[in-house]
Structures are given as C-alpha cells and as structure tokens.
Amino acid sequence: FTGGWNMDQNNWMLMMCPSVGPDGVIIGDTLYSTFMNGTSGDDLVYWNATSLTGMNSPPAMAVTGLLPNLNYQSYPRIDNFGNALAIVWKQNVNGSDQLPIRFTNNINAGLTAGYDTVDLGNITNADVALANGSIFVVWQDDNSATVRYRSGTFTPFSSVNEIQRDEITLDVYPNPGQGLFTLACSGNMAGIEVRNMLGEVLMRTEPGQKTSLIDLSACAAGLYLVKVVSGGHTQTRKIIIQ
Hints:
By secondary structure, the chain is mostly beta strands. It is built from 1 helix and 18 strands. The protein is 3% helix and 53% strand.
C-alpha cells in the first residue's frame, strides 16, 4: 500500500470483536465501505463511498440513523455483483434482534430509501453475497445454535441502459469542487437530477441547453450523483463536494 486515508473521520476506535467491521468492496473508481461507530453515543452502522482517484473520503452516512427504541447496530457486511450492492447488519430494537438489508441493483442511482428485514431472533455474525441475480444472506442463530441462510433474486442492471448512456457525453467540472459545478453535455439537456447516496432527490432542473451551472454549495461535503437526460438517453456522474 502506497497511501491511504480515513474513511471515518470521527477518530473513534472500536475496542471489540473485529466482526463489527469494517468491510468494503470496489466498484469502478469507488470504494464502498461499511462499519460500526459509536462516536455519537449510539452504536450505529455507517457506510461510505470514496473516490480512489481523489484519495479522499466524504463524511460517512448512517444506514438508517436513529430508529425508535433502537439499542444498537453492529456486525455490518457489504458485497456487490456488478453495480448491484447490498449491506446487512444486526440491530437490536426494543430488546429484539433484527437482521436488516439495504440493496440496490445499480449503486450509481444510490441505495434504496428503506430497508427490508431478513430475520428476527437472536442473530450474530451476518454476511451477504451477491452473484448472477441472486442474494444470499447467512447468519448465526444463537437460539437454535445453528447457521442459517436465506436467498433472494434481483434483476441485474440492464446493459442496454449502459449502451444508451454512452450515446451522449457529459463532463462535470470542477470535480471535486466546493459546490458549484458546470455540466457540459453533447446534446441539449432535457433534465438534470441530483441525488445523495441515500437516493434522496436534492435537485431537479430542465435547462434545455448543452451547458448548465448547478449550485450545491448548501449541501454537506460528500459524494453525490448527477443524472442528465438528453435525447432520450441518460448519463450519470459521481461528483464530490469537498
């Protein structure tokens, strides 16, 4: 390793079993990581998306944030297959263990807004694996003293969409930037949409021209997704606010 950076800027060291994280995968130029952190006074699971080219890391994002009657979250794991990505973790709500999962079949569009629950019970050491349109979740069930698993399916992100996106070109600069970004497209932009990595829409505009300036200076430092529609095709770019 020739260098590195902090994925978690809270300077909080976890003196516990390494099963609480961290874990990570690389998709293209981005390192997606997950870990548990208790610096806020609550043990929560976070995730981060870091540009390997930029060699800097935006603030980590909580996978759920504080939930009603949440006691703690721990044991996060992450995996991907192509652009599909899933995070599983253990959480205890009102004294009961839960095994949640957050998933997307295209991380370029961000994670789903909510989470699904895989199982309820005395859960430890969950893990997740994705392959060829299938999701596999495995965990230790302390009630039955067994290792259990559950599987599901998903539709992989269509390669047809990827071909269509390549039919227009899109440049974003400066990137990384302080919040003001210029978008330059090969065709007139019918729509611009900006989302955070939780999938929440922060901005929508319809410039109707080849260049446009977007102002995200009110947004926190971090990684965002900008999608442009032009001539029936789309392009998505990751932008970093420093």
